[in-house]
Amino acid sequence: MKKININFNKYSKTSLIIRIMISIILIALIGVVIGLREEISRKVYNWGDVVENPDFVVHYIDVGQGDATLIQFDDGKNMLIDCGPTSSSDELVEYLNNEEVEIIDYFLITHPDADHIGGGVRIFQEFQVKNFYRPMFASASEENLQDYPVHDTQIYDKVLNAFYSEEGAQMFYTSDALNAIEGVNYQVNFLYPDTVYSDTNACSAVLQIELDGFKFLFMGDAEITEENKIIQEYGFSLKSDILKVGHHGAKTSTSEQLLSYVQPYYAVISVGKNSYGHPSSEVISNLTKFNVNYFTTIDDGNITISIKNGSLVVGESQGQMIDYALITVILAMILFITWGLPDFKRKKPSKDNKK
């Protein structure tokens, strides 16, 4: 085997020292990028470690093209906002079981669209529900609800029938639930709707939840018309730390005007594979314009926001990673180039000195 010899004599002493120092730094950087790629990714993309024994946790659960959010309060109570499509029922139940949820103290379906209520039957079958908050829509099989429009889908009818079979559960309409939920360190405010609307998105419940001083705004599938009504009613009291983006990032929601009042630091978009163009480029542009750090369940998986001792930490089940392979290749190329450059310090012999 032929030996490979590196001729260090072709470099001047100063040049050799500089090249060795640069090489040590580059090799160290390569080691750091490879060894600490996850920790670096967490810093770059603003996602944090799992918090041990948090006071509050908000789980934005990946249920595909739909919505489901679990809130765990510091007094041990649980709140579930929406429950995803029927196709994600197994995944939702498994997630709740992994979080050791047995009782759902507050179960809210924001509006009767299938991607928000599909898992409702399983929720009533698998868990004890104490309080159920529903839209102002009657199902086809309900009686004595003439004041409400009828939403006659089969899944909505099944969900409400599953509620009626739940022993001891109380039912509230979203218009009757204003300021209905509070604890020592938290409060749930129902901002909208306050009257009956015939369109399902127009009646979508909007909530602002304060947990240990941090405010979370949940927009359901409310669209710009509803956003403007809410802005007119609440103004800058809408300001929140975290925004649950409305309607899966559709261009008909999350206007610049709403963002100018909410001024969130983080935003979460619950979205899966779809043919609607969610999240829209318009919404992403608006979030970027207002310097909002946003996450999507399609890219980041299950997203958790934990609060402990007045601090807030974001976590993801499949957080985005830096392209450490590309960075390693670039650093290795720089290392190779470092030793391949000519030594400008060493003077070439002049023609006058040649004999």
| Number of H/I helices | 11
Q: Helical content, roughly?
A: 25-40%
Order of helices and strands: HHEEEHEHHEHEEEEEHEHEHEHEEH
Strand content: 15-25%
CA-based shape: elongated
User: What is the distance, rounded to the nearest whole angstrom, between the alpha carbons of the first and last residues?
Assistant: 40 Å
Count of individual beta strands:
15
**SS content category:** alpha/beta
The radius of gyration is 28 Å
Mean pLDDT: 90
Main sheet: strands, sense, barrel: 8 strands, mixed
**Order of strands in the sheet with most strands:** 6-5-4-3-2-1-14-15
Low-confidence stretches: none
Labels describing this entry:
single chain; 355 residues; eight-stranded mixed sheet; seven-stranded mixed sheet; 11 helices; 31% helix; 21% strand
Write the layout of secondary structure elements.
Elements: H1 13-35, H2 37-44, E1 56-60, E2 69-72, E3 78-81, H3 89-98, E4 103-108, H4 114-117, H5 120-126, E5 128-134, H6 154-164, E6 170-173, E7 181-182, E8 186-192, E9 206-211, E10 214-218, H7 224-234, E11 242-244, H8 256-262, E12 266-269, H9 281-289, E13 293-296, H10 297-300, E14 303-308, E15 311-316, H11 324-340
Parallel strand pairs: 3-4, 4-5, 5-6, 10-11, 11-12, 12-13
Antiparallel strand pairs: 1-2, 1-14, 2-3, 7-8, 8-9, 9-10, 14-15
Helix pairs in contact: 1-11, 5-6
Tell me what the structure shows.
The protein is an alpha/beta fold. Helix content is 31%, strand content 21%. The strands form two sheets. It has an eight-stranded mixed beta sheet with strand order 6-5-4-3-2-1-14-15, covered by helices on one side. Strands 7-8-9-10-11-12-13 form a seven-stranded mixed beta sheet. The radius of gyration is 28 Å and the shape is elongated. The model has no long low-confidence stretch (mean pLDDT 90).
